Amino acid sequence: MSAPLLFLFVFVYFIILLGVAKITSKNSNNMSFFIGNKNSQWMLVAFGMIGTSLSGVTFVSVPGAVGKDSFHYLQITIGYLIGYLAIAYILLPIYYKLNLTSIYHYLEQRLGFNAYKTGASFFVLSRTLGATARLYLVVKILQVFILDNMGIPFWATTLVILIMILLYTYEGGVKTIVWTDTLQTSGMLLGLIICCIYILNNLHFSFLGSLQVMHAKGLSTVFNNDVNSKTFFLKQIIGGAFITLTMTGMDQEMMQKNISVKTLKDAQKNMITIGFTLMFVISLFLFLGGLINLYAAEHHIQAVGDDLFPTLALFHMPPYISIIFILALISALFPSADGAITALTSSFCIDLLGMQRNIEWEDTKKKKIRQRVHLGFACLFFILVLVFKWIDNKSIIDLLLKIASYTYGPLLGLFAFGILTKRKLQDKWSFLPCILAPLLCLLLDYVQPILLGNFRIGQELLIINGLITFLGLWLISSPNTEKS
């Protein structure tokens, strides 16, 4: 399949997205951009959020990691489901009761203005780093396998993709993204299923027969019983639960779409539906990972990790699979990138600039500021993607989880302190534990071979980070003597 032809399919796909955006962004205003006027249908939000939760990293890295880690990632997914249930019945009732536009307003009402600003700042930091790492992986694949052959430089590819995202999110924001994410999630899942069917037919396997072969080759082991390993099943399940609790329940991007749903009951349906659906979809990605490892072995193809699936789909499978792979990859890319830029714009405008507080600003001025911030984050994404190219991490999914452990820990500590205690915080010092906790975790991660021997800290680093933050907040707080 020629690179120009593949590029043509990507261009046509983008034109379709623009058409959807034009229809859905009619009569949009700031509230449409931020929370979709609280009029989104929960089923659309739930389905679209599958694409946001997965991204291009899942599409490439999860199948690629099966050769090394078998089906161990499913352990984290079990934890995800626990996390979604906690969000549905602990966090969402709080958000809906307070009628929040930004979830970080909860921190202001419960802990104080500085805690609110600190929480919002950590979200902006974490989501910016995480989203650009995801974006980098997909741009890298498009560059290496298509655009290098056309003589297009990496920076130009990144710039064009970000311009594409800006064009269809600039006006409608969440109101548009709810619909475009639904379209893109459909494309991603359809591509996943077609690729599985093709490989099964090519290898002449039935579904159960392929699982038996994977089991014989050690590719389908789910639970790791080695306590010292980073992928020990209890570490993965507990870590997965807290990853979801923080990266979804305490993340403005994910909750921005969820609180755009009309009622709490529908929002809870959304969370529970996502939890079970995500478990099924990731299981399918792992199954695909087993299949591509079998396919590579059968055809004597030497590729591993993040390079395995793209290499097979674009160079060792029929042209129609190449087209499907690229379109599915783009479908996985856009929901994570467009939602991130939109949510970061919302949080920066509402939480850090105080747009809703400033009643002197007219709507036209607010809209102009919001659009400039939106453009500013796109520029920041461009710079950071180039930085990730310079770093060139080999496993983006490991990098993402590491970033989450350091940057979401303070959010976990802040929300946990607010929900689980009634103590009064010395708000002016609230930033201090939130900064010290990640630094202490960084030190712990560095010295753990000396302190812990063969034991390795995995996803529980996020919990440790949150616990240190919680204890630090406790030390700068006092019993609340005010009567409720």
Walk me through the structure:
The chain has 484 residues and is an all-alpha fold. It has one domain: Up-down Bundle (Sodium/glucose cotransporter), CATH 1.20.1730. It has 19 helices and two strands. It has a two-stranded antiparallel sheet. Helix 11 crosses helix 14. It is globular and about 70 Å long. About 2% of the residues have low confidence.
Structurally, the number of domains stands at 1
The profile of the biggest β sheet is: 2 strands, antiparallel
What fraction of the residues are assigned to beta strands by DSSP?
A: under 5%
**Order of strands across the biggest sheet?**
1-2
The name of the CATH architecture is Up-down Bundle
Structural class by sheet pairing and helices: mainly alpha
The helix-strand sequence is: HHHHHHHHHHHHHHHHHEHHE
Task: Indicate the low-confidence ranges by residue numbers.
Answer: 29-37
Q: How much is the average pLDDT?
A: 78
Helix proportion range: over 70%
The tally of helices reads 19
Q: Please, what is the CATH homologous superfamily? A: Sodium/glucose cotransporter
Oligomer state equals single chain
CATH class call: Mainly Alpha
State the shape: globular
Describe the structure concisely for a colleague:
The chain is an all-alpha fold and 484 residues long.
Question: Helices, strands, pairings?
Answer:
Elements: H1 3-24, H2 30-35, H3 42-69, H4 73-97, H5 105-110, H6 113-145, H7 154-169, H8 174-203, H9 207-216, H10 233-247, H11 252-258, H12 264-298, H13 308-315, H14 319-352, H15 363-391, H16 396-407, H17 409-420, E1 424-425, H18 431-452, H19 460-475, E2 477-478
Antiparallel strand pairs: 1-2
